[in-house]
């Protein structure tokens, strides 16, 4: 049976370090990290994520600024808010929760965030820095950065020459994940909906990262024996066995099957999820430290 990679424990150790460094930054430089989180509309999942980000920020000793805007908010109003947050020296990190309502051009909003406050790492400047290996000054997207920490926990820091397969090519997870693995000298393949023989390709992976948003798609016999499996998926599926109208969370990996083949595997929930928030705190602290000089 695979080793279970406990994201809650690793995330807690990241958060403890952030708390300690924040206390030092505040006492030595008089700077308190500030994180502004913007949510537009009432998507229930987004509301849960945003409220946990705010809570965790306070727990770390940050100032947390939450901007809750009506679903009918215009692009112009949102751009004005971003401009104000860019100019506000008490704000070191700006996160606009995605998805945004259809009438707002998400790309335009993301590119309006000052790159030095883009703690999500979605601005072209940060994407470009990651792509060219400028990791010291880039903000790296939180979910892939957190996934890398989990991989390093089980495989150590030297991932040189390992075969990594990333299933999913999103800008938020798949592509930055592939870039991080490449920067760590893995041989990286990005698989997607048009990939031929996906099971066969997955079986070549020493490190398999699933980020497709399809419940339990990756099966036991897709996993190379001993592989490290990182499940980024969070899918809510009906669970009639728990009672009428009940649901449960599952990943993109068929956990019960894959844990028989994998060397180590992340659970859902409690794997990658907690890491995303922890890395958001770490990015915000880095931004505040840079601002303090
Ligand atoms: N929606 C889902 N994941 C994310 C994320 O990492 N950042 C933002 N801003 N929105 C998201």
From TrEMBL:
InterPro entries, alphabetized: Aminoacid_DH-like_N_sf, NAD(P)-bd_dom_sf, THF_DH/CycHdrlase, THF_DH/CycHdrlase_cat_dom, THF_DH/CycHdrlase_CS, THF_DH/CycHdrlase_NAD-bd_dom
GO cellular component: cytosol
Reaction catalyzed: (6R)-5,10-methylene-5,6,7,8-tetrahydrofolate + NADP(+) = (6R)-5,10-methenyltetrahydrofolate + NADPH; (6R)-5,10-methenyltetrahydrofolate + H2O = (6R)-10-formyltetrahydrofolate + H(+)
Transmembrane segments: none
Molecular function in Gene Ontology: methenyltetrahydrofolate cyclohydrolase activity; methylenetetrahydrofolate dehydrogenase (NADP+) activity
Leader sequence segment: none
Gene Ontology biological-process annotations: L-histidine biosynthetic process; methionine biosynthetic process; purine nucleotide biosynthetic process; tetrahydrofolate interconversion
This enzyme's EC code(s): 1.5.1.5, 3.5.4.9
Residues annotated to bind NADP(+): 168-170, 234
Pathway: One-carbon metabolism; tetrahydrofolate interconversion
Domain annotation Tetrahydrofolate dehydrogenase/cyclohydrolase NAD(P)-binding: ranges: 141-290
Domain of life: Bacteria
Alphabetically ordered keywords of this record: Amino-acid biosynthesis, Histidine biosynthesis, Hydrolase, Methionine biosynthesis, Multifunctional enzyme, NADP, One-carbon metabolism, Oxidoreductase, Purine biosynthesis
UniProt cross-references to Gene3D superfamilies, sorted A to Z: Leucine Dehydrogenase, chain A, domain 1, NAD(P)-binding Rossmann-like Domain
Chain ranges of the Tetrahydrofolate dehydrogenase/cyclohydrolase catalytic domain: 5-120
Record's function text: Catalyzes the oxidation of 5,10-methylenetetrahydrofolate to 5,10-methenyltetrahydrofolate and then the hydrolysis of 5,10-methenyltetrahydrofolate to 10-formyltetrahydrofolate.
Oligomer status and interactors: Homodimer.
PANTHER family reported in the protein's UniProt record: C-1-TETRAHYDROFOLATE SYNTHASE, CYTOPLASMIC, C-1-TETRAHYDROFOLATE SYNTHASE, CYTOPLASMIC-RELATED
Family note: Belongs to the tetrahydrofolate dehydrogenase/cyclohydrolase family.
Protein name: Bifunctional protein FolD
Organism: Borborobacter arsenicus
Taxonomic lineage: Bacteria, Pseudomonadati, Pseudomonadota, Alphaproteobacteria, Hyphomicrobiales
């Amino acid at each position: 049976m695979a080793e279970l990679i406990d994201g809650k424990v690793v995330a807690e150790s990241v958060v403890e370090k952030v708390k300690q460094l924040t206390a030092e930054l505040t006492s030595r430089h008089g700077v308190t990290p500030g994180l502004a989180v913007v949510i537009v509309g009432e998507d229930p999942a987004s509301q849960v994520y945003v409220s946990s980000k705010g809570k965790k920020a306070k727990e770390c000793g940050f100032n947390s600024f939450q901007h809750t805007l009506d679903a009918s908010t215009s692009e112009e109003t949102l751009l004005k808010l971003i401009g104000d947050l860019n100019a506000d020296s008490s704000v070191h990190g700006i996160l606009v929760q995605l998805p945004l309502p259809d009438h707002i051009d998400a790309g335009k909003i993301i590119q309006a965030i000052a790159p030095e406050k883009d703690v999500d790492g979605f601005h072209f400047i940060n994407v470009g820095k990651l792509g060219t290996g400028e990791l010291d000054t880039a903000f790296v997207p939180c979910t892939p950065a957190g996934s890398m920490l989990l991989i390093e926990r089980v495989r150590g820091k030297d991932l040189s020459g390992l075969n990594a397969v990333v299933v999913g090519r999103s800008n938020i997870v798949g592509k930055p994940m592939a870039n991080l693995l490449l920067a760590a000298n893995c041989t990286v393949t990005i698989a997607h909906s048009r990939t031929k023989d996906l099971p066969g390709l997955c079986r070549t992976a020493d490190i398999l990262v699933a980020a497709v948003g399809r419940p339990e798609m990756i099966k036991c016999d897709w996993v190379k024996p001993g592989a490290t499996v990182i499940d980024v998926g969070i899918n809510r599926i009906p669970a009639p066995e728990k009672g009428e109208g009940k649901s449960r969370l599952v990943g993109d990996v068929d956990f019960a099957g894959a844990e028989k083949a994998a060397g180590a595997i992340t659970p859902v929930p409690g794997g990658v999820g907690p890491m995303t928030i922890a890395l958001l705190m770490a990015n915000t602290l880095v931004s505040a430290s840079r601002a303090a000089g």
